[in-house]
Write a structure and sequence with these properties.
Layout lengths: L4 E6 L2 E6 L9 H16 L4 E6 L22 H10 L3 E6 L2 E3 L1 H8 L2 E4 L4 E3 L13 H20 L3 E2 H7 L4 E2 L4 H14 L18 H11 L5 H14 L2 H16 L2 H15 L17 E4 L3 H12 L4 E4 L3 H20 L5 H11 E4 L10 E4 L5 H14 L5 E4 L6 H6 L7 E6 L8 E5 L6 H13 L3 E5 L7 H18 L3 H11 L5 H8 L1 H14 L10 H7 L12 E2 L8 E2 L1 H14 L8 H21 L6 H11 L9 H8 L1 H12 L10 H9 L3 H6 L1
Parallel strand pairs: 2-3, 3-4, 4-6, 5-7, 6-9, 10-11, 10-13, 11-12, 13-14, 14-15, 16-17
Antiparallel strand pairs: 1-2, 7-8, 15-16, 18-19
Helix pairs in contact: 1-2, 2-3, 4-8, 7-8, 8-9, 10-24, 11-12, 17-23, 18-23, 21-22, 23-26
The structure holds coenzyme A.
Length: 695
């Protein structure tokens, strides 16, 4: 017997305690330990077995680190069958999170009790697979088709109270899992309760599973796992238990073999790894009890909202009383959303807007805050004035942060007497919704300032990514390149609408042109004007057709017209025919004969441009690892999670293939398609981006 399961006999009950921290994942040792524990109990002359977890949780799932590796020891489905078939009465006592394989072990037990704070669920679809140890066969027998489809295809965590009402749990008791489990098991024995295998319960009636499959597939926006899981539930209704289990295994293995599974698991581990910086080990963050925000536009108000919701008092600084009131209005509007969704109560809403938020027009109001984030106009001269004033009023040790999206944070830091306290905190709009936070570390930023940036990110429930200083940092720099690849394809013959469609079919939340309309076309226009004024390289292909759209006062969604025409009250827009005419005119003026692009070619080029720039960003140390880029694109740029991120995608696609696309492009335009040295090196060495993640 392994140490992962401790065995103890208490009267007529054998107690199996799982001890595999941090989350009691059902790895080899735990599985073998459970098997040995059940066998020992059966020989020990007891009447019942109690299973529970030590530490913070019951089994939180199969051990995901074993996925894709050669199988070892007893299979989880066989273990579940063995537990259920035991002649003893088997009880599981749940606390923490009984998820995936964990819930499947609980479902194989004959009775289930939990503490009130316990949560259960089958989140396998969130890592690109489906329940594979009887979850789709046992759960519907307990709670019916409709509830099972909801729980399994959403992967959501179900609270104990709801789980009791649904019939997943038999009882909820306050206390420790061991204590409530023992009392319940004894009570069952005393009342003469017998084994109650879920597999022997009748299966629910079948429904129209083809329609259900189609509906779930559509909702998954390209993610297959939830729809395939529906077929598992179908098997529960249409086949005897053993045949249903066999079918579930086949479907599970189908998903296990997909790139989607690899992408989803890469995302799962990377979102946890991304904010763990070796250089921050043992570095304590500075105290963070209040923050200041300068500028109450959409961005500043979003940042303030996020901070307030995380329990941080905010001083909002604006230029005038009217502007400050307008900022408060925006923040209150954001908080109304949280109120409507039940995230805060009416009383909290009032407390946040009337007490936790302070409006100010004088920099002196910032003299006592621990951290200030400025979200003022994106112009170096303006930023310098702000930082000069902050330097004068902020207390010693206060952190001075800029929300700039591309300006040089070193230059900003240099205009203060305390560059070690200056950092970039780049939020994404709307800042109280978007999960990404780029933490831009300048040359002189102190380590404990970086640590505080990450601590703030964690407090605001963001995915924080460390970025070095360059034009656009990680995300916007890569965006500028792949957006350019799209612009070039438009000049050469593709339409913006075909490109948007090809990329949403690939899995992006939106295509680049729809995104531009949403963000406001004035932003890109200003950048183009700035670049032209600074002097562009003659080899850099420029396009002017959207300037004309902007000159006419059309800036995308906010004005009702851009690449698309938007009708009030309708989601999404229809292609703007004026844009098509302007593109045709520009091609003619430039002497370009338009050619046809296939959707495949569009995706291949767009992705190759993205991967190439990403490889430069990693190669230059702007991003620490490939996974940092992947998480940036996933959480800030609508990249499909089931593809793992651009560099995970590139690994799966084949780096040689991606490099070939880049070299092919270089034959027409060797300025834009200059291969990243890191990509060439990896191809030459036969290595992958993921190899770098593991270094
Ligand atoms: N297999 C292997 N490792 C796992 C794991 C699993 N099923 N679940 C969590 N871990 C690891 C995490 O990677 C993390 O490792 P790290 O400390 O080295 O980064 C550690 O356990 C703690 O997890 P974390 O997510 O940071 O803790 P949390 O308290 O925020 O959340 C869970 C706990 C269980 C809710 C969350 O980890 C989770 O959802 N796990 C996946 C559950 C799942 O999908 N199970 C189904 C698989 S069949």
């Amino acid at each position: 017997m392994t140490d992962a399961i401790a065995y103890e006999r208490i009267g007529e009950i054998a107690v199996l305690k799982a001890q595999n921290p941090p989350v009691n994942a059902l790895g080899f040792d735990i599985r073998e330990g459970l098997l040995a524990g059940i066998e020992r109990a059966e020989k020990d002359g007891v009447k019942a077995v109690l299973i529970y977890g030590d530490g913070r949780t019951y089994f939180a799932g199969a051990d995901i680190t074993e996925f894709g590796k050669p199988p070892r020891g007893i299979f989880l489905p066989d273990l579940c069958a063995r537990i259920e078939a035991s002649p003893l009465v088997v009880v599981s006592a749940l606390h923490g999170t009984a998820l995936g394989g964990g819930l499947e072990v609980a479902l194989a037990s004959h009775y289930r009790i939990a503490v009130p704070s316990a949560r259960v669920g089958l989140p396998e679809v969130l890592i690109g697979v489906m329940p594979g140890a009887g979850g789709t066969q046992r759960l519907p027998r307990l709670i019916g088709v409709e509830a099972s489809v909801d729980v399994i295809t959403s992967g959501r965590q179900v609270g104990a109270k709801e789980a009791l009402a649904l019939g997943i749990l038999d009882r909820i008791e306050e206390g420790e899992p061991r204590e409530i489990g023992l009392a319940y098991t004894q009570e069952l024995l005393d009342s003469g309760a017998t084994r109650r295998p879920v597999s022997e319960m009748p299966a629910p009636e079948a429904v129209d599973f083809d329609a259900l499959y189609d509906k779930v597939l559509k909702k998954g926006r390209g993610l297959l796992a939830p729809a395939v899981a529906v077929r598992g539930i179908q098997a529960c209704c249409e086949l005897p238990f053993d045949a249903g289990m066999k079918r579930e295994r086949e479907l599970f293995m189908e998903l296990m073999d997909t790139d989607q599974r690899q992408g989803m698991i890469h995302a799962f581990f990377s979102e946890r790894a991304v904010s763990k910086l070796p250089e921050l080990k043992g570095i304590a963050p500075r105290a963070l009890a209040s923050i200041g925000v300068i500028g109450g536009g959409t961005m500043g108000a979003g940042i303030a909202t996020a901070a307030l919701l995380a329990g941080l008092p905010v001083v909002m600084l604006e230029m005038s009383d009217e502007a400050a009131e307008a900022a408060k209005g925006r923040i209150a509007g954001n908080l109304q959303g949280a109120l409507k969704r039940g995230k805060i109560s009416e009383a909290q809403f009032t407390q946040l807007t009337e007490e936790a938020l302070t409006l100010a027009t004088d920099y002196d109001a910032l003299s006592d805050v621990d951290l200030v984030i400025e979200a003022v106009f994106e112009e170096m001269s303006v930023k310098k004035v702000v930082f000069g004033k902050l330097d004068a009023v902020c207390k010693k040790g206060a952190i001075l942060a800029s929300n700039t999206s591309y300006l040089d944070v070193n230059e900003i830091a240099a205009c203060t007497s305390r560059p070690e306290d200056v950092i970039g905190l780049h939020f994404f709009s709307p800042a109280h919704v978007m999960k990404l936070l780029e933490i831009v570390v300048a040359d002189k930023t102190a380590l404990d300032v970086v640590a505080t940036g990450f601590a703030l990110g964690q407090r605001l429930k963001k995915i924080s990514v460390r970025a070095g200083v360059c034009d656009g940092f990680i995300g916007n720099r890569i965006l500028a390149t792949y957006r350019k690849a799209a612009d070039h394809m438009v000049l050469d013959g593709a339409s913006p609408y075909q490109i948007d469609k090809a990329l949403t079919d690939f899995g992006f939340a939106m295509g680049p042109f729809a995104v531009a309309d949403l963000a406001g076309l004035d932003i890109g226009w200003a950048v183009r004007k700035r670049k032209r004024a600074e002097g562009m390289d003659p080899r850099d292909r420029d396009s002017e057709y959207m300037d004309k759209v902007c000159e006419a006062g059309n800036f995308g969604q906010k004005t009702g017209k851009g690449y698309y025409v938007y009708e009030a009250g309708k989601r999404g827009g229809t292609p703007n025919p004026e844009v098509t005419d302007l593109i045709a005119a520009e091609r003619a003026a430039k002497g370009i004969t338009p050619r046809a692009f296939t959707d495949d070619e569009i995706v291949t080029r767009y992705m190759a441009a993205m991967v190439n720039e990403a490889a430069k960003v990693v190669g230059e140390g702007i991003a620490r690892r490939p996974l940092d880029v992947d998480m940036t694109l996933l959480f800030g740029y609508g990249f499909p999670r089931y593809r793992g991120g651009p560099l995970k995608w590139a690994d799966m696609e084949g780096l040689d293939k991606v490099l070939a696309t880049i070299k092919n492009g270089a034959q027409e335009d060797d300025y834009f398609w200059e291969p990243a040295p890191l990509l060439e090196k990896l191809v030459a060495e036969g290595r992958s981006f993921d190899d770098l993640n593991k270094e």
